[in-house]
């Protein structure tokens, strides 16, 4: 567990979160500052700081994260239209350094994102 990592604390049940999906390797919970009517964060339970830190051995868990995103979208009834976003690095908008996929849905999204 990453010291002082809020997402590790959520995964361990030490910090409250509105959990919508969980498995042995993945957890999904609602973002506290939603940017869309539905805004869920999907994380690997194991602490990996950034996409930029991924190693070949992380492929399976990151695959599980993506499959979980699909399951969350179905569970929340937004499987027809949702956006997945991953920020890697502070200048890309990353503020929590434990990998997470944002699942956003329930409104229209511009492309390109800007
Ligand atoms: P990032 O900017 O790193 O891509 O996204 C981090 C996200 O985590 C933000 O959307 C922020 O609102 C969310 N967040 C930060 N701290 C917490 C927390 O303690 N609980 C929950 N549920 N979301 C958090
Ligand atoms: Zn962590």
Explain the overall architecture.
The chain is α+β, with helices and mostly antiparallel strands and 114 residues long. It contains two helices and five strands, in the order αβββαββ. It has a five-stranded antiparallel beta sheet with strand order 1-2-3-5-4, covered by helices on one side. Strand 2 and strand 3 (38-44) form a beta hairpin. It is globular and about 35 Å long. It starts with 5 loop residues before the first helix and ends in a 9-residue tail after the last strand. 23% of the residues are buried. The model has no long low-confidence stretch (mean pLDDT 96). Zinc ion binds next to helix 1.
Quick summary:
The protein is 20% helix and 21% strand. With 114 residues, it is an alpha+beta fold. Strands 1-2-3-5-4 form a five-stranded antiparallel sheet, with helices on one face.
Q: Uncertain runs with pLDDT below 50, 5 residues or more?
A: none
Helix share, percent: 10-25%
Which structural category do the helix and sheet elements fall into?
Answer: alpha+beta
- The sequence of SSEs as H and E is HEEEHEE
DSSP helical segment count: 2
Largest β-sheet summary: 5 strands, antiparallel
Whole-Å distance between the termini? 34 Å
Mean residue pLDDT: 96
Content of β-strand: 15-25%
Shape: globular
Distinct ligands? guanosine-5'-monophosphate, zinc ion
Evaluate the radius of gyration. 14 Å
């Amino acid at each position: 567990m990453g010291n002082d990592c809020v997402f590790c604390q959520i995964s361990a049940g030490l910090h409250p979160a509105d959990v919508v999906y969980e498995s042995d390797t993945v957890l999904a919970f609602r973002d506290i500052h939603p940017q869309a009517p539905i805004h869920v964060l999907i994380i690997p339970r194991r602490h990996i700081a950034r996409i930029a830190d991924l190693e070949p051995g992380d492929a399976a868990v990151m695959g599980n994260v993506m499959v979980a995103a699909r399951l969350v979208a179905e569970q929340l009834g937004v499987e027809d239209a949702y956006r997945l976003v991953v920020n890697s690095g502070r200048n890309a908008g990353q503020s929590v350094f434990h990998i997470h996929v944002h699942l956003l849905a329930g409104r229209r999204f511009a492309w390109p994102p800007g």
